[in-house]
Amino acid sequence: MYEFLTGPALWAAFIVFFGGLAVRIAYLYGLSMERDRVFYNHMDSKWALKSIGHWIIPLGSASMRQQPIFSIVVFIFHICLLVVPVFLFAHNMLWSESWGVSPWSMPDAVADVMTMLVLASGVFLILRRIARPEVRILTSAWDYTLLILTLLPFITGFLAYHQWGSYETLLILHILSAEVLLVVIPFSKLAHVVLFFFSRAFIGFEMGTRRGARAW
Amino acid sequence: MSEEIKKPVNIRKIKELLDMNDGARVRTWLSICSRCGLCAESCFFYLANNKDPKLSPAYKVKATLLELYRRKGEVDYDFLNRTREIVWGQCTMCKRCSQFCPFGIDVATMISLVRTICESQGVVPEGLARTTENIRVSGNQMAMATEDFVETCSWMAEETSEEIAGLDIPMDVHGAKYMYTVNPREPMYYPQDIAMAAKIFTVAEESWTMPSTGWDCTNLAMFSGNRAVAAIPVKAMYDKAIELGVEKIVITECGHAFRSAAFEGPYFVGRRDGKPPVPVIHSVQVFYEYLRDGRIKIDPSKMLEEPVTYQDPCNVSRNGGLWEEGRKIIPYLAKDFRDMNPNRDHNHCCGGGGGFIPMGPEYKARRMASGRIKAEQIKATGAKIIITPCHNCFDQINDLVKEYKLGVKVVSFKDLITEMMIIPEKFQPVENEEEMEDAAGEGTEG
Ligand code: SF4
Ligand code: SF4
Description:
Chain A is mainly α. Chain A contains twelve helices and no strands. Chain A has a single domain, classed as Fumarate Reductase Cytochrome B subunit (Up-down Bundle).
């Protein structure tokens, strides 16, 4: 089982993940050539970068400053979410085993804290969805599902690392949930991992290049 | 209306519109909205109405466009009528929310698409349906005849030349620098607005002309959602500007006219590059340049002493880029300026935009309720005078002044500039002549 999940299944998950995102972007690109002239007519890298930059820096936009706690939590959530899987020692060992090279690894203690941050902020996001009427009204079961799918690899990884429960089972669940997540990303709202940059760039031109107005 | 309801919904047409507009942007927006709710607090409808979650921008899209796509356009009049109340009664397409969304989702553009879909089924507020019909038959929103327009201009020229010697309202002058376009309510109900513009152009010794066609720069069909009709006034204006060979088209102190002529109009008339064939500039820009360059001089003794504030029209500031120009004019005119908060490109819509005012009495109560945010903004400044370079803001704020007893006077830049500008010697009317004319006039009248 373990061999299968870290072998062919992992390959498949990565292929679907990268392939899916690539296909989705290629498809949107084709569509945009035909139907979204407005995107290309007012392109300007300066406004695109500003528009993206202000929303990547913590509290870089007026909107984030209106809800500072939420914004900081979202920021921490995303950073930890991206950093932990890439720089985790246990993951990098797998890389060096099969390829002989691996990225730099961070100390396990740091990864542990960051994982807890992901989980804590994930819980915060769930509670916020329930607590705030303007968020609750937008939320469907699928939104909770996606949030939980995102958290699952972290929950299982965390438990496995601390050996709280059956290590074998947890490890299998960990790998499995991560692969499911990779497969889901390109076909759900989680595709914002890449689409964020396009939609932000567009509003950057639309407000900035055309009108000189801030989109942040 | 009841007759319309009996006619079946043209599902095919709705499907066609949905498909035509199913581009990369709409698709991306609809699919990546993370349902975070951050946009809610950017919308004055939400803020003014007890934070009703149904008024958050994301919900308005979810309940309308997303639902239309989900049902593949197979909806009934019940749905369309409910949708009408959302896309016209709960959104002015001010675009503020797209500045507050992490993905920059352009809710206004999607609401505009839903308006187009509703309009294709005859589901549209009556006031807008009427003006759209006017444009279709006459080319301008008030169905004013060309002769009447031209006559009004020459009447105004005649009247005003008594105040400013040599004043003229030139018509269809080839090769003029500016072609000045207006809101039909000016020739219809407030011809003094045209006279004021003429005074400013005359004193600034500008090379300008009014066009006898294509003079209506407004575009309420843009807000009714009928894009084919929305192309009519824009095309007339561009064509005339090209025919006259003018350098620029100048837009009167009207917000949505600027949005139409400079930003959305090129797309209505199918210009692939998205730019107008002749550059379009707003009066605010023109007036600012006159004051900056000393072509218009203000009599300091006439400057306003009372506290003054400025209403950034959405389509002049956020959607027009002219918030600084507006603010740079004010120090010439007023000593005590107090800005609203928020302001500039982040300013709230007055609540009268997006076609709300012409939608008529049926929508007035809602307009007043959601205008509470603007009323509070104004009150907080303590200003006694509010300047706004937009006819819609002007009307809405006048209504708000009454509704919320604000005790504020609403004025345009033209009002103030013509009142305070120094009329150079050469434009001073010759006293005797004036008296003689007056006497003659009285004689014939009596
Ligand atoms: S465009 Fe303006 S009125 Fe419409 S939802 Fe957005 S903020 Fe509200
Ligand atoms: S702020 Fe943007 S992403 Fe968040 S709910 Fe509103 S439209 Fe959706």
